[in-house]
Amino acid sequence: MRSDQFKGYFFALLATISFSNVYIFSKxxxxxxxxxxxxxxxxxxxxxGELIQFGFYWFLLxxxxxxxxxxxxxxxxxxxxxxxxxxKILILLGILEIxxxxxxxxSIQIIPxxxxxxxxxxxxxxxxxxxxxxxxxxxxxxxxxxxVFFALTGAFIISYTGETSLKNMFIPGTLVVLINAIFASTxxxxxxxxxxxxxxELITLNHTAWLLLYAFILMMVTGESWTIPAPAFTNxxxxxxxxxxxxxxxxxxSFKFIEASRSSIVQSLKGIVVLxxxxxxxxxFPALHQVIGGLFTVLGVLVMTLAQARLIKSGKKC
Length: 318
Known about the structure:
76% of the residues lie in helices and 0% in strands. The chain has one domain (2-308). The protein has 12 helices and no strands. α1 runs parallel beside α11 (270-282). By secondary structure, it is mainly alpha-helical.
């Protein structure tokens, strides 16, 4: 029905805005922790220690928000009905989430401009499509192949430094983004194949619980300080509400009303939202070739998702 479609696209739009702000507020929070360490002359574990501090408070707040919301909606009672096979899958997903989120936030920390990170993040749907073809034997059309080509071309334009040596050919963080895309795609494939009858609330709760546990263990092992600057905590509070809580919930709610491929059409515009947000918040703007490359990745993802949603004729699948 038309009203359901409107709800689906509305939730997808909210998810896109929420996820876009994750790049901005997480970057601002990590910058704040780094600056505080520099002023204090602290170098506990370098940039890795700052990432651990950030991750702990980020996922602590996200976990609390998700727990409160799940309790309020009565979804916590569903935990008693989860079978043993589902528990095993949730554990596997938890491990994959740890790997995915570690590389994700590490890439945000390494790459100076969050809009560049976001544009490179469009490698995720490309890798997901390729993994779906190779592992799930899914078929794709020549239109989708063109979308993959556009996205890969854009990623190359963004990350290419002009150097000829392999070591210096791409900007720092490019490999981390690629690894993140592989982990994120693996997580999506596992979820697509195995997860059945789990509510959005329980999925997000599982997501944040594992990440909080991981961050807490790292805090204890490394002996990082539990104190962070107030402005950094404020950015963490805003970002953790928008991303691990609001963003994940909205995307799963959108799936209840529209197909995932149609939801992805709206999400493909995330890079442009991050570009505008980073300019407004940090006053930064990527180099011209990176903007062009970023638009190529957006075009590639848009073509792929439009074809998968069957909104454009994609021809015979191969």
